[in-house]
Amino acid sequence: MPTIEYPIREMRLFHKEALRQLELLGKGLERFRVDGKRDFLTLSMDGFFLFAKNDLAVHIRDEEGAMFPILRRYTKLVDKLLGDHDYIDASVKLLETLRGMKKANDSEIDKKIKEVIQTFRDHIWKEENVIFKVAEERLTEEQISEIAERMALFRGGKEAG
User: Fold this and answer.
1) pTM of the model as a whole
2) What CATH number does the domain containing 121 carry?
3) Which of 4, 2, 11 is closest to 135 using CA atoms?
4) Whole domain around residue 96: which residue ranges?
5) Coil vs helix vs strand at 28
6) How far apart are alpha carbons 70 and 34 in whole angstroms?
C-alpha cells in the first residue's frame, strides 16, 4: 500500500501540476486564436484530458473521501468545493465531447476552455488559501494521519472504512 506522509503537501503538489496543465491548455487556445490551426490546441486538450482522467480523479477522491469529511466540521466551504468538483468534471466531459466533434463550434470550444481554466484556478485558490490553511491550523496530528491513511487506502485500491 502506498505511504502518504504529508497529505496537504501532496495536494499542493497536485495543484502545482494542475496549474501547469491549465497554462498549457490556455497556450493551446491562444495559439489557435492566432493561427486558426487546431494542432497545438488538440495536443494541449489531449494532455489535459489525460491529466483529468488520471491525476484529477485521484485528487478529487483524496479530497472527497479523506480530507473533506474531517474538514466539514471546521468550514462550510467544503460544500461549495464539492459543487466545484461536479462542475469541473461535467465541464471537462463536455469539452471532451466538443473536441471529438468534427464540426464543433470553435467559439463554443473557446468559451468552455476559458470557463474550465477560470473555474479550476478559482477552485485551487480557495483550497490553497482557505481549506489548506484551516487544515493546517485546526487539524490535529491524528486527523492528518487519518487523512493520510485514507488516501493510502484509496490508492491501494481499497475503500477506507
Assistant:
1) 0.88
2) 1.20.120.520
3) 11
4) 7-155
5) helix
6) 47
Q: What local confidence, expressed as pLDDT, does residue 157 receive?
A: 57
Cβ-proximal residues to 75 (8 Å cutoff; 6+ apart), any chain: 130, 131, 134
Question: CA torsion sign, 33 to 54 to 69 to 91?
Answer: positive
Place of cell 466531459: 93
Q: Considering the domain boundaries, does residue 24 fall inside one?
A: yes
Total of domains in the chain: 1
Number of residues written out for the chain = 161
Contact 93, 33 (CB under 8 A): no
On whether the CB atoms of residues 31 and 40 are closer than 8 A, the answer is yes
- Determine, yes or no, domain membership for 23: yes
Kindly give the confidence (pLDDT) of every residue in the chain, 161 residues in length, as a single tens digit, with 9 standing for 90 and above. 566 779 999 999 999 999 999 999 999 999 988 998 888 888 999 999 999 999 999 999 999 999 999 999 999 999 999 999 999 999 889 888 888 876 767 888 889 899 999 999 999 999 999 999 999 999 999 999 999 999 999 888 544 44
Residue 125's identity, in one-letter code, is: W
Lookup: cell for 78: 467544503
Assess contact for 63 and 8: CB atoms under 8 A: no
